[in-house]
Write a structure and sequence with these properties.
The protein is an alpha+beta fold and 164 residues long. Helix content is 41%, strand content 27%. The chain is elongated.
């Protein structure tokens, strides 16, 4: 009975630790959506710093005022709310972070839109970010690998003792 509880607990821990990583990586593998870790506080309290956001692709013409969109700004991605859709011989968007007093000083062209906010996982981005640091690699990859190897070596040794 103790073994079943121990194995169940191990599975739960692995799922809890891997779930954010799977959510973060899955959009890249499936296509049709993208994900990012929120690094700035301009969308607080709607989207917290350290959250993972998943955005799904959408036709820019289907975006409405009030939608939260991800878009390219220079070499990075910004996630802000659409406050105005301007139609003048084409169209573009004016955006603003919920925590910002003023609208963004730029306009968002349709070709710069990455997608619309589909869902978010608050604070799990910190875990993903940490996993990319040297200490995170040790904690999330090397230590579990060593534990698995030791467990397998013990099983092999136990089998050999039983035969010998």
């Amino acid at each position: 009975m103790r073994k079943i509880v121990k194995e169940t607990l191990s599975v739960i821990i692995v799922v809890v630790l891997l779930f954010p990583a799977i959510i973060y990586i899955a959009p890249f593998l499936v296509g049709g959506s993208s994900s990012a870790i929120v690094l700035g506080g301009s969308m607080e309290p709607t989207i917290h710093v350290g959250s993972i956001v998943v955005c799904r692709r959408i036709k820019p013409e289907d975006i409405k005022v009030g939608d939260i969109i991800a878009f390219k700004t220079g070499g990075s991605t910004t996630i802000h709310r659409v406050i105005e859709k301007v139609v003048e011989g084409g169209f573009y968007f004016r955006t603003k972070g919920d925590a910002n007093e003023d609208p963004d000083p730029w306009v968002v062209m349709p070709q710069d839109v990455i997608g619309i906010l589909h869902f978010q996982i608050p604070y799990y981005g910190y875990l993903i970010w940490f996993a990319t640091t040297p200490m995170g690699v040790v904690l999330f990859i090397l230590i579990p690998a060593v534990i698995l190897i030791i467990g397998e070596v013990r099983k092999i040794a136990k089998i050999r003792r039983g035969r010998g």
